[in-house]
Amino acid sequence: MASGLTKGKMATVLSIDGGGIRGIIPGTLLGFLESRLQELDGANVRLADYFDVIAGTSTGGLVTTMITAPNKDNRPMYAAKDINNFYLENCPKIFPQSSRNNFIAKVTSLFGTVTGPKYDGKYLKSLTKELLGNITINQTLTDVIIPTFDIKRLQPVIFSTDDGKENVSKNALLSDICLGTSAAPTFLPAHYFETKDGDGKTRSFDLIDGGVAANNPTLMAITRISKQILMGKFKFVDMKPMESSRMLVLSLGTGTPKLAEKYSAAEASKWGLLSWVYDNGATPIVDIYGDASSDMVDIHISTLFQSLHCKTNYLRIQDDTLTGDASSVDFATTENLQKLVQIGNDLLKKPVSRVNLETGRFDEVQGEGLTKGKKAKVLSIDGGGIGGMIPGTILGFLETKLQELDGANVRLADYFDVIAGTSTGGLVTTMITAPNKDNRPLYAAKDINNFYMENCPKIFPQSSRNNFITKVKSLFGAVTGPKYDGKYLRSLTKELLGNITINQTLTDVIIPAFDIKRLQPVIFSTDDRKENVSKNALLSDICLGTSAAATFLPARYFETKDGDGKTQSFDIIDGGVAANNPNDDDVEETPAAEETEQEVQQEQVLSEPPEEEQLRRSTRERQPSRSFVPELCPELVVTIGFDVDLELIVVVDLFTNPALDTFRQSLIKCPILPHLKHASVSL
């Protein structure tokens, strides 16, 4: 039997996505892998003997538990070859089906979706309780990580073997964790349970599917290893954080219908609340957030491993060709379940590939070099509707201080190599980087909030919230279409930006969006125009796309031409479904450097806080005694691997103009601003 890895060797990670009944696909792959390991090391070896960390979300959390929870002999409860038998036997009972062609069944399903979860979850609850009994997470046979989301606290809750050993209140029953991580919104009921801490005090959990936070938990697993290394608790004490060359990572997806092009902007622009949660038996909002989350993690990790010259240490296996019933997370008929088994077997025959960020399909992707020795200065701005006034206030404050040093004409675009923004952050990014007729930024940072003050009440028009008729109209409007028609925002952006394209910005920008037809993130950047003419879109179209928040504003459709004159279409919604905080995209868009002795030394200190540096224009040196920015924000100028994160709070768009002014004034008077010590601010 394999005895596990020893000090000085590779750290091994297995990650399994969420995806309902499509867990059969990774189940097939894992059965194959374990059988090959058994050919080498004997029939009794199991996957838990080979992986240092196994992470799983939702259905992936169930699979993780099956192959790591101990049986009475202290060996894994399930061999990998038995995973699919478990799904084939139990999925029809967890997700009972009625005739999809029966009119009464369709009506019942629709009203059931509106009034409660599609399935009652009773069978799944009794099954997990029966199988797992009183086994807690600290008893797993290797380290596991299972994410969930607490809807009461509005924050992810990550359960892990290590936490279970160190924190009694996190040492929950595996059955409760499984029920929590698999409680997919609209499909299964949320799960509540309690634990006790070391002093006997009760801790409560109100959990739903971990997929809303990390449908692909690979990055979470790698981050957990790095955290353990920093704390001196990881088994390989001689490893460094994020030392990718000593990690082997296998990430398994559950399939996606990218090529089926299930949704389009033309359809989604007319959707209200109901259509976003129910469309011909599908749940678009769940599909989109799940795919967006999984894809962004793949993008992040692929870039990380490529930039550190060890791309072969990371393998992502995913099938993006699912169609019809095979793409469903709950259509648990015998025929469809067997089809998923076949898809898994077919996937084993396909060649190794990596995702192409332009097409969303899997093929080889080559990296590029970075100028040696240059440090990247990155600004990143979250999405959050009218909450964009918060970073607007901070950026206005920052720019005025820079003007005190370098003159009234300097702008933020003169200082940052990359500025990234999502949704409202994309609008702010465009305002401070799009050129005016003098080829200077269209807006000074001090004017951002004036823009919001003037235009937000017209973009999000409000009526009396206490008027009964208004409430009824609002309810039916939310069901039948987006809350706001977006006409004013569309005319405003077209008027301000005209024919300016993204290749004209005054510094490199990155603005994420999500294509609902291809079910994949689309990242627009200034650099892309050098390689892909079809990505050189109008800034007005990009802004309308990245800000098209589901249920609030209509989806955005537009077209561009490639170098051969062929049309490329985009069916775009809010980039926040893929990267509401776009700072990781900033690092990814900075190509990998050629490895030099100096850079190797730099990599060795990446785990340490960056030294305090002054923010300066790249063309000018300044004496340290004149530097204001280190006192303001020591991490604002950063080496590769660190970035700025102006955290936004999401503010409900129900402010009238006077209320917005009061809100802004309270921020300006906030005592934290004159003494700001970190770029990451929560107000």
Please characterize this protein's 3D structure.
There is one protein chain. This protein is α/β, with parallel strands linked by helices. 37% of the residues lie in helices and 13% in strands. The protein is built from 25 helices and 16 strands. It is globular. It starts with 10 loop residues before the first strand and ends in a 15-residue tail after the last helix. Mean pLDDT is 78; it is low at 1-8, 365-374 and 589-683.
What topology does this entry show?
Layout: E1 11-16, H1 24-41, E2 53-56, H2 59-68, H3 83-94, H4 103-115, H5 122-132, E3 143-150, E4 155-160, H6 161-166, H7 174-181, E5 191-196, E6 202-208, H8 211-214, H9 218-230, E7 247-252, H10 265-268, H11 273-277, H12 284-307, E8 314-317, H13 334-348, E9 354-355, E10 362-363, E11 378-381, H14 389-406, E12 418-421, H15 424-433, H16 448-459, H17 468-480, H18 487-497, E13 508-515, E14 520-525, H19 528-531, H20 539-546, E15 556-561, E16 567-573, H21 576-579, H22 583-588, H23 597-604, H24 629-632, H25 657-668
Parallel strand pairs: 1-2, 1-7, 2-3, 7-8, 11-12, 12-13
Antiparallel strand pairs: 3-4, 3-6, 5-6, 9-10, 13-14, 13-16, 15-16
Helix pairs in contact: 1-3, 1-13, 2-7, 3-13, 5-7, 15-20, 16-25, 18-20
